[in-house]
Amino acid sequence: MSEPSDNQKTGATIQAKAADYGNVLAGVVELLDTARRASARVVNTLMTATYWEIGRRIVEHEQAGQKRASYGEQVVSRFSKDLTQRFGRGFGPAQVAAMRQFHLTFPPAGQFPISDWKIRNSPIGDWKILCGRG
After folding, report:
1. Whole-angstrom Cα distance, residue 73 to residue 6?
2. Which of 9, 29, 75, 90 has the most neighbouring CB atoms within 10 Å?
């Protein structure tokens, strides 16, 4: 039997690389999909913590060491105006009020009563039940 020609060797190599390319591409696509999902979770977690912290700061400013604030609506409106001017959309009065309420509704991490049925048995996204609105 004779040796394969250079053309035959190249053709076999190209076919092998073409078949392998599909496997490599599938792996790269899976890697990117996984990274995108993970980064979305991280961003969501960070934004949730940020909104809670914004709410905490608003409440602390409103109350100034007292049990209840007397002018909460005015503070929310002013924060809304200033934040919208600085950052654009997403800081309307309703959104800023929701951040404030988010802080008031959910205590800092680790302070949820473990025996509370609503927390142990509700989906994490079901905030209406956790807020007593469900």
Report:
1. 81
2. 75
